[in-house]
Amino acid sequence: MLRMLMVRLFQKKALLFSGAIILIMFVLVLFAPVLAPHDPNIIDIEHKLQAPSWDFPLGTDHLGRCILSRLIFGTRVSLGTAFLVMVVTMIISIFIGTYAGYKGGRIDYLFMRICDVLLAFPSLFLALALIGILGPGPLNLFLAMVLVQWVFYARIIRGMVLSVKEQNYILAAKVSGTPGPMIVIRHIFPVILSQVAVLFFMDIGGIILTISGLSFLGLGIQPPTAEWGAMINDSKQFFRSHPSLMMYPGLMILTIVMAFNLFGDTLRDALDVRQD
Amino acid sequence: MIWFIVKRLSMLIPILFGISLLTFLLIRLAPGDPAEAYLRLSHIPPTNQAIQEMNVKLGLDKPLIVQYVDWLGKVVRLDFGISYVSKQPVWDELMLYFPATLQLTITAVILTVCISVPIGIFSALYKGGMFDHLSRILSFVGASMPTFWLGFLFMYFFSIKLDLLPVVGRGSLAHLVLPSLTLAFAYISTYTRLLRTSMLENLHQPFVFYARVRGLQERVIIGRHVLKMALLPVVTAFGMTIGNMLTGAFIVESIFAWPGLGRFFVSALSHRDYPVVQSCILLMGVIFVVCNLLVDIAYGLLDPRIRWKGER
């Protein structure tokens, strides 16, 4: 009993702790212009590579830009892109996954064959190749990520719909003449949405990692936009003399990804009935 | 068992066909004209006439379906065309860079297995103890760590501060340590947790109870019976991992200046060297599919239930 209680308490604590970090990040996203001490893109070569001071709390980079301000504005880019990718992916996946799962038949067959081929590639590789072919940049990054990710989630959602579809209350709704779209919206969506939410939070950390990784390779968000992965790439050449330039953005990525992973894991455990 | 393998192999054909079609179409998404890219890379002024001649020479004037069939026919004979940049056969170039990537990936796989299997087993056996908590925290950090950043951290501490290992490049065994560890880190975390969960699930199965009743030594029960069952989901996950690791190797290669396929691929992307890009994509797809096939077969060997189902 005590042990279970401890576990529960820890989970709640974990949820609060990770939730707090995520909340702080969102405050940074919303109030970046107010909170940042400087404009993140003002170049001032005279003050390049400065040590931390009152004026520049974390110092300046190789172009004399305020690192703290760039980190703060970086939350907007990293979180914004990741959320956008994930939300659009989920909407597409829910739509297609539900349609394929509920309707079955030829559409479902076609969908599964598309899955076979698209999932035959490592997803990170396919994203890399797509951006490479389309050309680097934020829009193409977004397109490539969505195009690669949707299959994966659509297939999971299709599976969820398939298992819900056979439940008795769905059959009852069918027998009583409820039209198909109504069954999907009223009886299937509410069941799968909590699972989709868990998926969302469990995987968004990975999406943030992928986006910053691609930006690090110079394929995603382009300089001079303040993005954490691109900042690490920028500081590569000063890495021996000024290692701190690389530490801050990396720590930001690590913190936010850990917060999301912890949040997602705890949420999954909390919603998983089998745990009890 | 033979039938099981034959069945799996026959499922491979439509997927390989789909992969080739996707690869072929993907490259057509590229903005700009391949003929123009070729001319620019050859330092020939891209006049209209030159572009038209090049279109004929590269076979780009034919209908798409004819191009596809032509291309597929060549690919089957391992003729991937000529690189626009180096003017060498793409296959030769691939074989020049691929061993470096393979070496990196295989070392990372070995590291992953050698580190995560013991940690996973001990975490499961001493569940809730100090070791378990420590491994839990470590694997949590590991799973959230950006690979490219971790690479620089390793490089900074081990190569620059402590001066223990070479900074970049490929050559001695010492060169291999940091890149492969960087690549393996996230997977070590994942597999430690996966194996721990899977061990715990199997520790309370009836067959374990039965083995205890039979008076088998605990060491034998854990080592032979529980571990074998617990490894099943780990093996499945590995099929996915190999492909992702090869891609992860691309990022690691760019940090440590490792002369592998990743650097070759990224530079081909920036030069718009279409035959190289196309061949790399195809190669990755085929490797990934073959890895998954091997995993399926390994799964069949480990778990007779699956094998029998396949034969019926």
From TrEMBL, chain A:
The chain crosses the membrane at residues 14-36, 79-102, 114-133, 139-157, 196-221, 245-264. It comes from the Bacteria. It is a multi-pass membrane protein. The keyword Cell membrane applies. PROSITE patterns: ABC_TM1. Residues 79-264 form the ABC transmembrane type-1 domain. Its main location: membrane. The keyword ATP-binding does not apply. PANTHER family: D,D-DIPEPTIDE TRANSPORT SYSTEM PERMEASE PROTEIN DDPC-RELATED (PTHR43386:SF1), OLIGOPEPTIDE TRANSPORT SYSTEM PERMEASE PROTEIN APPC (PTHR43386). One of its GO terms (cellular component) is plasma membrane. Keywords: Cell membrane, Membrane, Transmembrane, Transmembrane helix, Transport. This is Nickel ABC transporter permease subunit NikC. InterPro entries: ABC_transport_permease (IPR053385), BP-dependent_transpt_permease (IPR050366), MetI-like (IPR000515), MetI-like_sf (IPR035906), OppC_N (IPR025966). CDD domains: TM_PBP2. Pfam families: BPD_transp_1, OppC_N. It is found in: Cell membrane. It comes from Brevibacillus fortis. Belongs to the binding-protein-dependent transport system permease family. OppBC subfamily. GO terms for biological process: transmembrane transport.
TrEMBL record, chain B:
The chain crosses the membrane at residues 104-125, 137-160, 172-190, 229-256, 276-302. It is found in: Cell membrane. Its main location: membrane. Residues 98-295 form the ABC transmembrane type-1 domain. Keywords: Cell membrane, Ion transport, Membrane, Nickel, Nickel transport, Transmembrane, Transmembrane helix, Transport. NCBIfam families: Opp1B (NF045469), Opp2B (NF045470). The complex is composed of two ATP-binding proteins (NikD and NikE), two transmembrane proteins (NikB and NikC) and a solute-binding protein (NikA). This is Nickel import system permease protein NikB.
